[in-house]
Amino acid sequence: MLRITEETVQPFEKEHIDLLRKTAPECALFLKREDDTLPLAPGKAALYGSGARKTIKGGTGSGDVNVRHFVTVEEGMERAGFEIVSKAWLDAYDQVLVDARAVFVEQIKKEAAELGINAVMYGMGKAMPEPQYEIAMDAECDLAVYVLSRISGEGADRDVSAGDINLSETEIRDILYCSRHYKKFVLVLNVGGMVNLEPVMEVKNILLLGQLGTPTGDVLADILTGVSNPSGKLAMTWAPIEQYPSTKGFGDMDDTVYNEGIYVGYRYFKTADVTPTFPFGYGLSYTKFEIGTASVAADEKKVSVTVPVTNVGTCAGKEVIQLYVSKPYVKLDQPYQELAAFAKTSELKPSENEEVTLTFSLRDLAAYDEELASYVLEKGVYWLRIGNSSEDTVVCAGLKLDADVIVKECKTICPGADIPKFIPADGMEAQERDAQLKKTEAPVYELHAELFQTEKVTYSEEPTEILNKGTGSFEDVKSGKISVEQFISSLTNEQLAYLSIGLYEDNTGMGSMIGASAQTVAGAAGETTKRLEELGVPSLVMADGPAGIRICKIYKIVDGKAKGVDNPLAGMMEFMDQEQLQMMAAMAPKPTEEEEKAPIHYAYCTAIPIGTALAQSFNTEMCEKLGDLVGKEMEQFGVHLWLAPAMNIQRSPLCGRNFEYYSEDPVVGGRIAAAITNGVQKHKGCGTTIKHFALNNQETNRMASNSIVSERALREIYLRTFEICIRESAPAAVMSSYNLVNGEHANNSKDIQTHVLRDEWGYEGAVMTDWYAVGGMIAAAGGRENKHPAGLASGCIHAGNDLVMPGMEADFEEMLSAVDNPEAKYPITRAELQVTAKRVLEMILKLA
User: Which terminal residue of the chain has fewer beta carbons within 10 Å of its beta carbon, N or C?
Assistant: First the structure.
């Protein structure tokens, strides 16, 4: 573990920031670019907007990264040679924010008091809406840049209101003023998700910069001056919020019904023939590309489509080619098209061309038939469509399957959802679409049903106890003298339970609610137990993600434990009343003489682009490089497990945590997460923890919200992204989600944690809970009791969720009380304890 005692910029910091500055433009894109304003020559510039000086590098909560410094837009433009002539406006806006924040905090405290709940917990993740103000925009020059920012985070969802999803009256007024008053104007979106731009669509140049981590301001300056060419594409559809079918009922405190079924994002918009503001897969750059005639090679195992791409513009750039499939509609309804594969070109100079090959297996596009409990390819023609956005695709070939194929026979999971079938209205009927497609001149390739093999899943039986096979230490396991099974057989039930619960100290109540309960690395989220150290079992350190490693920047080593010097509660103190602040001060332990004399260490990590921005790159090679960057920093600072990637589906723009997630499409989400994981896991002793498994698609009452979803949508949309990542990268761990799925907590669901994850997908790693996801930690929601009870530690063991994090004494006691107890809600056996403890030990063997 690297111990840095000098507060100077380290070589690895510079190396990593340089890599980000070079690659991050691939995450950005122009939504509009209609004139010759760009690129810009440095000179005088009027800089306005919420993100100009208060630039956002990423969202709040566990996804934040404690960096040494990050570059704001103002700083980046000045470093690029721009003279900012609107300093008076920026100074005045700073004061507006201070005043508005004070009012916002008092309002949160008042609302919390009225609801009878803790203001700190109530305020978690809540973003202050953009305030109204009157500040003169009188900077005289030819160029104006307006930077519009939005922040969101863990614990709260976004709101359909001015200053959040919608623009405020002030923002609309000022953006339109800039557009009409200045000769050159660029609207820059420093956002983590969709905002409604309808009132300002007259603006000719709109750049979706996103939130790009440490070098955000420098990346913008590079794009504005033409040093870099943005080449991203939208990974989520942008449309007025009322047009998303997922908006109805979103954020219900108890039960959120996924009425739209499989029609998420572009699957809905294209099928319903609703034109979005900006479609999935769309993005402009400084140059243009021409896609040539595709050639296709297809058989029952693999489909390959090769496409020539030519840069027909005036500068170098990259293009993303997207391959969609329109499936036959026989028994099962189908969306107009769904993404099967994507690929990004290398950087092409003007007039330069390249052949891009996209591959997929037709069996991966099988639909799930709930009546048959099977994945099925229905008889008919599967039309392949090539394009550079979901709104711009052309049929290039058809694959004609001569009979129905059962691809995989499964079992019914997560019953209990009673949802009427949702088929988008107003769109072209599938049969009519098929009839039109048959008139195309595209070649059709014959595929034969008898050449497909049917996979039949064998599901786990109840485990049998590993009987005593001898004794020995964990060192004997590592040296090969005894097996893991032999070691497991010698452990007591108490020792097995400790292995399945994170590190905690006795009689300390809830421990740390801030996700910083580790002892080995200051500020890390947690650790596995140290209670078996006398048997040679080391602990694993876990740090939050996914925009980089979240640990303390400054720390000391005291009594063998790493202790952060900076106050981890600083971000929460504004919501505390005077009594709470005094109580916290009184309870704070006085530093010992050893602590005061201990040397200071530094651990500055790098913030990479947020998840949504990474997905917008559509570049798996680039994402693997950034995973490699994270893995290097994990090695340096002693972190074994990164609690990332976060890869839930962006079901609705209202989800407050969407900035951490990748896409509305499971193929994009799964492949980007796999690339990140492969980069991290190149490093010995480093692993990822893909999360949140599954359906963590809203933050409102997230610990007790029940996601009600059809089995088909669950499997085809929400589980598939995890399956792709596991198949392509074998992440070291999986984190289960807080929410319930059709009435049962995800971490207590054997269907999800064992039958799907292990039996159907063959996953061999460990599964852990999210922090404080079980037991009595679920607070009352909105001042009233929750409809759904908390999950249980024993339920996790029964389900196959191996590790309860971050660990509490109550978890340990509840788990042991359920062993061989038929009266328990989730009776468990010693054999089940052995199974979960074995997987934790195998993870420790692999990583420690």
Answer: N
Q: What is the DSSP letter of 354?
A: E
Q: What angle do helix axes 666-680 and 720-729 make, rounded to 10 degrees? A: 30
Structural contact between residues 59 and 610, judged by C-beta atoms closer than 8 angstroms: yes
Q: Are 337 and 273 in contact (CB under 8 A)?
A: no
* pTM score, whole prediction: 0.96
Please, which pLDDT band fits residue 411 given cuts at 50, 70 and 90? very high
Please report, as a single letter, which amino acid is at residue 176.
L
pLDDT digits (tens, 9 = 90+) for 527-540: 999 999 999 999 99
Lowest mean pLDDT among 93-102, 420-429, 553-562: 420-429
Strands 687-693 and 733-736: parallel
8: left (phi over 0), alpha (psi -120 to 50) or beta: beta
Distance separating alpha carbons of residues 756 and 459, to the nearest angstrom: 9
Q: Tokens 């990637």 correspond to what residue?
A: 645
Q: CB-based contacts of 282: which residues, under 8 Å, 6+ apart? A: 29, 31, 233, 234, 388, 389, 390, 391, 392
Query: Is it the case that residue 784 has pLDDT exceeding 80?
Result: no
Q: Which residues have a Cβ under 8 Å from the Cβ of 245 and sit 6 or more positions away? A: 259, 260, 263, 268, 422, 424
Structural tokens at position 623: 């994402």
C-alpha span between 616 and 280 (Å, rounded): 10
Mean pLDDT value of segment 715-719? 98
Helix axes 620-637, 666-680, angle to 10 degrees: 40
CA proximity to 643, closest of 793, 502, 497, 495: 502
CB 307 within 8 A of CB 292: yes
As separate numbers, helices (DSSP H) first and strands (DSSP E) second, the chain gives 22, 32
Q: Which amino acid is at 286?
A: Y
Buried b (16+ CB within 10 A) or exposed e, 379-412: ebbbbbbbbbbbbebebbbbbebeeebbbbebee
* CA nearest neighbour of 261 among 335, 327, 160: 335
Q: What angle do CA 541, 547, 549 make, to 5 degrees?
A: 25
Whole-number Å distance between alpha carbons of 662 and 683: 23
Angle between helices 11-23 and 216-224 (to 10 degrees): 40
Q: Are 774 and 824 in contact (CB under 8 A)?
A: no
Dist CA 92 CA 98 (whole Å): 10
Please provide the DSSP assignment of 509-555 as one string: TT--SSS---SSSTT-SEEB--TTGGGT----EEEE-SSS-B--SEE
Query: Does pLDDT of 298 surpass 80?
Result: yes
HSE-CB of 577 using CA atoms within 13 angstroms? 9
Residue pLDDT, tens place only, 448-475: 999 999 999 999 999 999 998 778 899 9
Pairwise CA distance, residues 170 & 823, whole Å: 61
CB count within 10 Å of CB 578 equals 7
What is the C-alpha separation between 717 and 392, in angstroms, rounded?
Answer: 23
Tell me, what's the pLDDT at 592?
Answer: 83
Query: Under a CB-based contact definition with an 8 Å cutoff, are residues 268 and 427 in contact?
Result: no
- Domains of the chain from N-terminus onward: 29-229 (3.40.50.1700)
On the question of pLDDT at 196 being above 70, the answer is yes
Q: What are the CA-CA distances from residue 602 to residues 17, 197, 555, 746 (Å)?
A: 17, 42, 7, 38
Q: What is the pLDDT of residue 781?
A: 64
Say if residue 242 is exposed, middle or buried (CB neighbours under 10 Å; 0-12, 13-18, 19+).
exposed
Residue 261 C-alpha from the chain's centroid? 21
At 121-160, the pLDDT tens digits run: 778 778 888 899 999 999 999 999 999 999 999 989 999 9
Average pLDDT of span 268-285: 97
